[in-house]
Please model this.
Amino acid sequence: MTGAERVLEAITARDFSAFDGVLGPTSQLRALLPSGFVEETGPADIASRFSQWFGNLEAFEVLEARIEITGDRSSLQYRFRTRRPGEDETVISQHVVLFGTNGTVDAMHLVCSGFRPAQEALAGALHDYDAGTLGCADGLTQAFKQQIREVGVGDVLRVHTVDPSAKEDLPSIARLMGHKVHSVEAHPDGSLTITVERGK
Amino acid sequence: MSDKLIFNCTSGKESPERATLPFVAANIAAATGQDAVVVCTIDAVWLGTEGGTDGVASPGLPALKDLYAEFVGNGGEVWLCGACTKPRGITEEQVTKGAKIVGAAKVVEELVGGARAVAFA
Model:
């Protein structure tokens, strides 16, 4: 088993103690997260960092895990469905380029998507529609109907609006038309994003 | 299945009796444990804004300010028609406790789900 295979197996099995046998004693993790850049040194601290991400989960499912070879360099690409205690389901993907020799990994350069709401990622393609200031008397219903018809069944339409009544109205319109409302997200500027999956 | 009772109110300060009566009936519904909503349209949308019920009183009826507070305290909701708030320049920041701006689809969905609409003024 190669170093890349052993690291990927440790991550997907969430057995981070297995890093001990494959990461060198001064190995480094350099990770670019949505919150910023972090670094860890040594198998124990690297394992601890992975454990923070994936150790305490109520649900964990490997959606994709593969090794890519570029010349003499290996990288890992994996995507998980996860659920933290008391929270909604999320998905997360990471891409990790491995550096090392003779089966030992000396450095891991990682880019992370962050934990993202699962419903959008698990459904079909994602589309965006800016409804602007349209309200129920300005043609919002007809405009939404036209937009959702242009996406495939199972696809997700993310509607952005600044109309205050749309917060209550768009989910109703969507449900009445037989679609599935995933979320209504309020933003600090007063605008809203309503995520709808086309049902029929 | 919706158990809501929806009371429509179309008048504001210009017609205190018409403004107050739907809240009288809706408050009885809310006080007796019913799921009660007053849907305010046209000038009644002002009633759901800060200070919107101040001075609204009709002989023989409770002051709307007190009645409104009692209704909301009983769990009642006030929905302000979005198509009526928009041309009047009413924003969410002006909306008072217990009220929210909704569109017609919200009402239609409730009715489709079994809610009953009551005309009381």
